[in-house]
Amino acid sequence: MRKKVTIYTDGACSGNPGKGGWGALLMFGGLQREISGYSPATTNNRMELMAAIMALEALKEPCDVDLFSDSSYLVNAVNQNWLKRWTANNWRTAAKKPVENIDLWKKILELIKLHNVAFHKVKGHSDNEFNNRCDFLARQAIKNNS
After folding, report:
1. Does domain 3-144 have CATH number 3.30.420.10?
2. Is the pTM here over 0.70, yes or no?
């Protein structure tokens, strides 16, 4: 039986594009693990995706995951089947333009084949303590590397 893990993620950018950070909180069986990272030149969307990727890559075995993010870009791409359409259209949007961040989307596709991931949208900068913690971790990663 797979372990059930809850993950919260967030990305931040100082300028967009600019210096970026991401943060994630992984919760399993009463334990919590925080991870974060930094990129010197990136976008907010890339940091949102990186947070999810790094959190899922931190899992040591295939898991059932509830992943919470305030990124509509991330959550809608999966839940509204944008990813399926993009891959079916050779990584082109409905407007026939190349999909941005293909490298990260391909990684997410690999990870959601490995793990059973349910994506959930949460309101950002609100009263969700776990989302707020991830926002703090992402901003701290920028601050610590600036």
Report:
1. yes
2. yes
